[in-house]
Design goal:
- This protein has 296 residues and is an alpha/beta fold.
- It has one domain: P-loop containing nucleotide triphosphate hydrolases (Rossmann fold, 3-Layer(aba) Sandwich), CATH 3.40.50.
- It contains twelve helices and eleven strands.
- The strands form two sheets. A seven-stranded mixed β-sheet has the order 1-11-10-4-9-8-7, sandwiched between helices. It has a four-stranded antiparallel β-sheet with strand order 3-2-5-6, with helices on one face.
- It is globular.
Length: 296
């Protein structure tokens, strides 16, 4: 089944009281478990990133419980689940964005190509260039379009001359699908672009530093349907060169853009499987209840 057809097949029928009771029972069992083994295809060969025994705490509150998962090279993996389930918190563990929160403590192991990303000697600034981030709300710098894209390469010494920098900016804007719209206004403020264009500018800024992985935290939630469609097309194009992990509240979007889908619930990774499997034959009752709209 194609991803477009798959996204149309997601049901949002009303809740059956008996099924709702079953879901509550499964939730109670999940809460009472000290450990939980994820169902499905959470470990893969040719992993770009690997996560083992990861727990995340905000002070005394535990947000993520013992997650084991691999992210395959050049795949798009979508992370879905109800609000507050931990999917965005988990995404931020992949490039140590949680380090910016004083009360946050992360335990376990996160590696990329076998390298421990939580090694105290690791340069976190360099890590965040290698594992880029695109946020929910477009956040261009208060600079020109050109300077938004050129900032990272300058910081990391990726361009030896103005000619090299000009070429890098142009290539990044082309990869982000923004060059034709921006080439005649490169020195105008990036904040003057539309919302969808600003988000593509942020993607261009992320890929300008030549990352290996791109993390996207609900990148289309603030965009209109046309801008969303353009970002989704871009995700498919970028996956040829980058590994992409995306958090989304839109199950239709997850069905359209991802190769595998991971379902989180109450801080636990419930199921990871090929996207078609998750949306047509989920293996866990909670996954089925969520994708059929019985809670969310």
């Amino acid at each position: 089944m194609s991803n477009s057809k798959l996204s149309q097949s997601i049901s949002t029928d009303g809740a059956d009281p008996k099924i709702s009771e079953q879901v509550l029972d499964v939730e109670k069992d999940l809460l009472s478990m000290e450990s939980y083994s994820t169902i499905g295809n959470n470990l893969v060969e040719d992993a770009k990133m690997s996560v083992r025994n990861v727990n995340v705490f905000y002070g005394d509150k535990q947000a993520i419980f013992d997650v084991h998962m691999d992210i395959k090279k050049n795949e798009v993996i979508a992370m879905i689940g109800p609000s507050g389930c931990g999917k965005s918190t988990f995404l931020r563990t992949l490039n140590r964005m949680n380090d910016t929160i004083d009360s946050c403590v992360v335990s376990g192991e996160v590696t990329m190509d076998g390298e421990n990303l939580y090694d105290p000697k690791l340069d976190v600034v360099e890590l965040r260039a290698r594992v880029g981030m695109v946020f929910q709300k477009p956040n261009p710098f208060p600079k020109s379009i050109f300077e938004n894209v050129a900032y990272g390469p300058r910081l990391h010494g990726l361009a030896d001359s103005k000619v090299d920098l000009d070429e890098l900016v142009e290539n990044s804007l082309k990869k982000a699908g923004l060059w034709e719209e921006a080439k005649d206004r490169l020195h105008q403020p990036g904040t003057g672009l539309s919302g969808g264009q600003q988000q593509r500018l942020c993607i261009a800024r992320a890929i300008a530093v030549e990352p290996e992985v791109i993390l996207m935290d609900e990148p289309c939630s603030a965009l209109d349907p046309i801008a969303t469609a353009r970002i989704e097309e871009l995700i498919e194009e970028l996956s040829q060169n980058f590994t992409i992990a995306i958090v989304t509240h839109s199950m239709q979007q997850a069905a359209r853009v991802s190769h595998r889908t991971a379902y989180f619930h109450l801080g636990k990774l419930i199921e990871v499987n090929p996207t078609e499997t998750v949306f047509t034959m989920p293996e866990h009752k909670l996954t089925e209840a969520y994708i059929t709209g019985r809670f969310g």
